Amino acid sequence: MDIPLSDLHNENNSVATGDVDQTPMPDTRPLAIEARGLVKQFEGTRAVDGVDISVPQGAIYGILGPNGAGKTTTLRMLLGIIDPDEGVRRVFGHDNPHQIAKLIGYLPEERGLYPSMKADEAIAFMGALRGLPLDEGRKRGRELLEKHDLGHAADRQIRQLSKGMAQTVQLLGTLVHRPKLVVLDEPFSGLDAINQGKLERMIRALAEDGTTVIFSTHVIHHAERLCEGVAIIAGGKVPYAGSVEAARDRIPAQVRLETRAADGKWRSALPEDARREGDFWYFSLPESGIETLLRALIEGEAGILSLSIERAGLHDAFVHIAGEAAARALEADIAAEAAR
Amino acid sequence: MSADNPHPIMQSSRLSTLQAAYVIARRDFLAILFSRAFLFFLLGPLFPIIVGGLAGGIGSKVQQGTASTEIAVAMNSADTAAMIVTSKTLREELGGYIPAMVPLAEDLSDVSPKDILQEQRAGYAAIVSGTRAEPVITAPQSQIDRWRGPVGLVSATSLETSPSQFPEIGADVVATSGADVKRSRVQTAQAAQMLLFLLTMLLGGMVLSNLVEEKGNKIIEVLAAAIPMDAVFLGKLFAMLGVSFVGIAVWGLTGTLIFFGAGYETATFAAPAVGWPVFFGLGIVYFAMGYLILGSLFLAIGSMAATVREVQTLSMPVTMLQLLVFFFASYAMSAPGTKMELAAAIVPFSSPFAMIARAAQSAELWPHLLALAWQAVCVAILIKAGATLFRRRVMKSGPQGAKSSKRRSKLSLRRKDKSQIATHY
Q1: Domains and CATH numbers, chain A
Q2: Could you tell me which residue, A187 or B65, shows the higher pLDDT?
Q3: Which of A5, A68, A323 sits opposite B1 (nearest CB)?
Q4: Rama region for B126: left / alpha / beta (φ>0; ψ in -120 to 50; rest)
């Protein structure tokens, strides 16, 4: 079933389903992707269990979770590579993403190119799969390779390229037909720091041109730096989907306080779960706000030596939302990748 | 989407299945055609043909060499000359039946014929001594049995006791009798069936290795995301069909050159009932159908395998089954017009073999049109079923996605942890 895009704006679409927290994103852009209640089972096990995601057009959106959480399966369902057992997905309003394959670019986690193909041919072939004529694909391929300092590799076979160069060639092949939606599965995986930086710049440039970018990652920093929206996925479920800012706001800011007085009336201004470590007190900022806290501390003669307020990061939000075990799994994935 | 007011982004769509299949087929065809592996694949079957041809030629030469016997004549000089002249004359008429005769070497004139042969002092097959009226052959028994008659004829002719002129015999050649036609056409049918079977089996296996390579390259997901899996399936099948035709053209041309070069003639096989041109045309079409049917089956098998070893294991039962089907079609050929032949023509896997045999034996063409239509339907069904299975199996889980239930059980434990962590916060 196809629905008009006009019905797919993002104003009232973030209705929570079950225990999923759908925080509305503050814009009315039409949706590039909308998924409701996606379920996929493999041999009786629910790899994805009721995923809801809404991605507005032009956004950079991250799917964040440890390996095995269901990120790849979710992306494959969104792209129509596999069909969900339950739920609906719409890409630019289409139930069948294959109907608009020309508008989509996809970089799978397991990179794959024909080893005997030349770099420019490989890019042109990937464009041809999305409807770009081969000659135009070759021309654009050479231009893209030049632009990314790989002009010298245009006539070289993929098997003659380094792993990083081959990955770049595949990424360029994903973009050669100028898609409106780019889906990247763990795009930073296997890249060194320099190439990760290049990729981040490339993703930002795509979004600036109005392209919607959705990528999966198990590295929180990438999502935090790039994304305006994230879906946190763990165990096949999405406990949070919404803006990064809203996710961070889920956790009160953390206060670090150093006082001259060891005790006194001011202590009643601190929350009950405030903990002392050395000379410092650590506690969540009370709901009454910083001004009330400061007033209570001054009037209670705490003798403030230093006070800092730190806003929670996405990592803290992830731990808060997905659980500490999921966060540990993320860190283990990163460590394993670094070891590789 | 709304037809009245389409969003600009919707104006683009996707490649049709045939367009997408063409993209895949073109890539695969060119990649395989210009690969070293294909060169060796192409040359592989040529080696036995060329070696066989050469061996046959050499063998024939050797045979001729060993067969070119000379008989030495050790008579008085007049008789010797007469025997040699007569043998030459007779050889012109009777060919190899009459042995070539040469005078005994002068240096052996003092040695008895028996000693010459026993001591192998010369390469004569036999030595004829005595006189023309009473020739004596000295040779092993087998040679004596062989040459007794011809030597007697030469002697008698030289003494003019045998007709020196042979009557001219008219010839009225009959290629074959009615019973022979039937028998020869069966031979043609058998040869065509065997060729068709060998080609489909040999080339059908190529689809498998191609698919495994694709999985190894991990590009299958890129293809599955961009185009329908049916198109991937179709493109691969037709690319391999194109490659097969190239192979057949090369092998066919080489085989034909060797066939005619070796002195065979088309009359070696009886002309098929539908005539050679139609027979060749049907052969190509039935090969294509047989190949597509088998290829789609192999592709479906390939989708279930991850390694070449797995492919070989999985394809073994199919190969055996195909062999049985071939035997079935061969057996059915011997009973034209029976239910057995009809069954062989209906079962999709044996249909091409049964029908090519029929083309050799029966001149009717309409059954072929019917069979081809049926086979086309079967090909379509098999491709669709194979593509569906392929899609399900190939994209069954993510690279990390469905690692194991063990992994998931850990995740479920993490979810239990969550409540504890939340309490802490």
Answers
A1: 5-248 (3.40.50.300), 252-310 (no CATH)
A2: A187
A3: A5
A4: beta
d(CA B87, CA A240) in angstroms, rounded, equals: 109
Spatial distance between the Cα atoms of A276 and A281, rounded to a whole number of angstroms: 4
- Beta-carbon separation of A111 and B218 below 8 A: yes
Phi-psi region of B323 (alpha: psi -120 to 50; beta: other; left: phi over 0): alpha
- pLDDT one-digit tens code per residue, B197-213: 888 877 777 777 676 67
Q: What average pLDDT does the segment B391-403 reach? A: 52
pLDDT tens, A6-30? 343 443 333 333 344 555 455 678 9
- DSSP letter string, A42-60: ETTEEEEEEEEEEEETT-E
- A28 close to B (CB below 8 A): no
Q: What is the ipTM of this complex?
A: 0.79
Which among A42, A43, A323 has the least Cβ separation from residue B415?
A323
- What pLDDT sits at residue B270? 67
| Parallel/antiparallel/unpaired status of strands A254-259 and A280-284 | antiparallel
- pTM of the complete model: 0.69
> Rounded to an integer, what distance in angstroms lies between the CA atom of residue B244 and that of residue B312?
20
Give the residue with greater pLDDT, A3 vs B337: B337
- Walk across the sheet containing A229-234 and list its strands: A21-22, A237-243, A229-234, A60-64, A212-217, A181-185, A104-107
Residue with tokens 């001054």: A298
Inspect the interface and report whether the beta carbons of A81 and B224 lie closer than 8 Å. Answer: yes
A68: nearest CB among B35, B401, B413: B401
Lowest mean per-residue pLDDT among A7-11, B216-220, B229-233, B245-249:
A7-11
In whole angstroms, what is the distance from residue A233 CA to residue A248 CA?
Answer: 16
Which of A38, A81, A174, A177 is the mutation pick for testing B, counting most B CBs within 10 A?
A81
A73: chain B residues, CB-CB within 8 Å = 397-398, 401-402
Average pLDDT (A214-237) is 90
CA distance A24 to chain B (A): 23
Would you call B10 and A131 a contact, using CB atoms and an 8 Å cutoff?
Answer: no
